[in-house]
Give the backbone structure.
Amino acid sequence: MDLFNKPSEAPPPRAGAGTAPLAARMRPQMLDEIIGQDHILGGDKLLRRAIEADRISSIILYGPPGCGKTTLAEVIAKTTNRRFERTSGVLANVAILRELLKAAAHWKKMNAKETILFIDEIHRFNKSQQDVLLPYVENGDIILIGATTHNPFFFINTPLNSRSQIFQLNPLDEESIVVVLRRALNAPTGLNELVTASDDGLAHLAAVCEGDARRALNALEIAALTTPPQENGIVHLTRHEIEESVQKKAVNYDHDEDEHYDTISAFIKSVRGSDPNAAVYWLAKMLYAGEDPRFIARRLVILASEDIGNADPRGLTLAVSAMQAVEFIGMPESRITLAQATTYLACAPKSNAAYLAVNDALADVENGRTLPVPKHLQSGPKPDKGNVKYQYAHGGDGHFVDQEYVPTDKVYYSPTEQGYEATIRKRTEHWDSLRNRRTPNKD
């Protein structure tokens, strides 16, 4: 049975129907067919007005996979009265770019019309490749439409960004994904009413596809092609068949790029903010996406000193032990060790007093006058030490003697009232009272 071609009375399919993947056949052809992105394509929004008035300028489309960047570029090409060329940051090199750009300049000279040059994955172009585009964008020989899953402010040259308008596309919400799937079930170029699907099956697919319409359509197509038809020739997909068509979830997580840094940031801030549930969720996302567990462990060691410190000195010991255990055990078992360390540190009392202390002292060393070492603290005999003698602390009452250790009264370390630091604070206040010359900072 052919799921993609109805008998001859059906409307004529678009080119490629029945052979191209379902996601490609269901690609919108007009602005009104695009689902979602109302924040930039709504009736009164700048981008829609510019497209419909054929006043489009160079733009960068930025968003996650499957949100419609390529679709929007192709719709712009069909809607506006411009020549259209496309290439990719993966396939094109400088020589290919120059040929496309020269042809665009020639076309404008001969026909007084610009060329829309669509570059998918433009972030993969290096600086020299991006620089090649600049004069042609400036002269108006091309209207550049670049598509990227990466933050253009980090991965696109500043001069190119400044000459383009940047539009961020969002992942499709679950309701929009269901609309896309239902359209695919009924469209002549889609599954042509030869496939039906349960509501809970479509809802499940919309939930797990992470706003990626292409992934949702691919899964629907796999389910349709692998499920036997009923006696009437119709394939009916339940949630079971749809679940089977979606294998391991493809988490949006680019190593060494935006999502990597955003997720580890959320993880650290959740631990710092004493929310073990949020912290474990971000930990699970990183592990599922294949993050190096040693990287996570190292960040926990840093956090144990920076955000917990002496409020719970055991935190650093636990974090270092976790790092060693992760190195020794490896995945998948080390996930348990990381979860233990994460939840302990999230629930520990917090203090950044040690972090603030060293930063304050470093700033004084860098920007102020370097203080000399007091004579009685210097090593070995020196001719000019005079009669000042070092007093051995353990020889004093309570293992304490009142002597100068640095020629400043500035207080760098101010213990908080959190956890064990409350005990440390009482101790330092007692010593300061014995010195009778320093006033500790009060929180």
Observations:
- The radius of gyration is 32 Å.
- The mean pLDDT is 86.
- The longest strand covers residues 142-148.
- Residues 84 and 116 are 5 Å apart (CA to CA).
